[in-house]
Design brief:
With 435 residues, the protein is an alpha/beta fold. It has 17 helices and ten strands. The strands form two sheets. Strands 1-2-4-3-7-8-9-10 form an eight-stranded mixed β-sheet, with helices on both faces. It has a two-stranded antiparallel sheet with strand order 5-6. Helix 11 links the parallel strand 7 (299-304) and strand 8. This is S-formylglutathione hydrolase FrmB.
Length: 435
Amino acid sequence: MTAGGPLDWSLVAGTVPVLVRALGALGLAVLLFSRDRRWWTRLLPAALVLAALLSFLVPVVVDDWWQPFPDALPTDVVVWIGVAVLGVCLAFFRMPTLRLRGRAGALAAGACVVLLGLCEVNIHYDNYPTPRTLLGPQDTVGFKEAAGRAEPLVEVPPGKAVSEVWRAPDGLPAKGTVSKTPIPGTRSHFDARDAYVYLPPAYQASPRPPLPVLVLMAGQPGSPEDWITSGQLPDMMDDFAAAHAGLAPVVLVVDPLGGSFDNPLCMNSRLGDVQTYLAEDVPHWAATHLQVASGRAHRAISGLSNGGTCSLQMAVNAPGRYGSFVDISGQDEPTLGSREKTVDAAFGGDEKAFEKVNPLDVLARERFPDTSAVFVAGKDDSTYRPQALKAYAAAKKAGMKAALVELPGGHSWQVWRPGLQEHLGWIASRTGLTP
């Protein structure tokens, strides 16, 4: 636990998970113990069979029937969901053997077991590192208020970085602002959810430095607010700004999905014109609603998982818009689960139409000597790490200035959060913010 108060206690390490595990074990013991013969001969076996059946159905329903995302549920996640299901089943079957007070105790014990299962799933994904992140984005500011009025711009001579000519004025705020705002699909007609905009402290200065733009995307299922809460983006960017006299990239956390469980594959197809949205609508909106540096050299794109795949896609299919990208735990090609299913849904079975925009196919036939890339993969990510290696090799062969970084962890925020944080300096350098 930290000194920041209960809302800042860790949910993935330290005292809280230990306490939850102890309560969960106690809850299981309370639910399993009974002097009633019926419990041991009839009710407990029935509870165990039902829990096992429901737990078996979880991956069947999610991975085989529903298929909300292309990769299967990890085994340990399925196991801990099964533990939560077991707690519900045990509590339900204990009810006939107990009086009113005992039933209340069984419900409390069952809740502790469910909490244990949910806690372990959260630890696997590191999705909610603290209770505060469960509350959603905090301390947001209206976009018009945050953007303010137009200010004179600091002149940056050719060949110089912004940090080489910038001097922070007295009274510069210590923290940046986070705003929620629509970025409409004016040209693409893509129905994106509202974006989040981070403006660093230097954006509040006059004269205002011409800051680069980082376009950032979450995974699927997911939403833009994931980077604000689970990704702890505001703190990450404020820390970077504090070390650079208030300077940091402007960050647009945008939506390339349209819905948490949608997957239009970050391309122009029957599923929506997402490529046009990211290549035309988002840069145009930034240029007209913010005072930022213009041109591909001052614009980077990044994302995690599905968003990482999308960043690679945009770098090769819209190279005139994005000069650098960080692909965090992305795939080697966009997919709905299989090549056949993907091509059928997006292009009506037209394989050549898919190959025209599929990033590895593009990299095989074109060269990108003016694009810089970082591919980030979790060392324990058995599904996405091999794909990152494949995409990295293809990018190098196509002439990109590419690097591969492996971080401890699997397909989770344990990799995604530091995957961005550790490369903010790289992004700042590639986009002209720092030398």
